[in-house]
Amino acid sequence: MLRVIAAGRSTVEIAERMHVSERTVKRMTAALLRKLRVSTRAEAAALAGHAGLLGD
Hints:
Layout: H1 2-6, H2 11-18, H3 22-36, H4 41-50
Helix pairs in contact: 2-3
């Protein structure tokens, strides 16, 4: 989930890719942001980059 958020995918794109509803993606994203203790997708993407999750 963090990788697709960091890749800049929209909620709709993530929902289609994961075969879930947009509402589910929004809830999952909100939960992830809380767990990472960040408030935006951009901050989560930055954390993913620092953690080396984005590859080259």
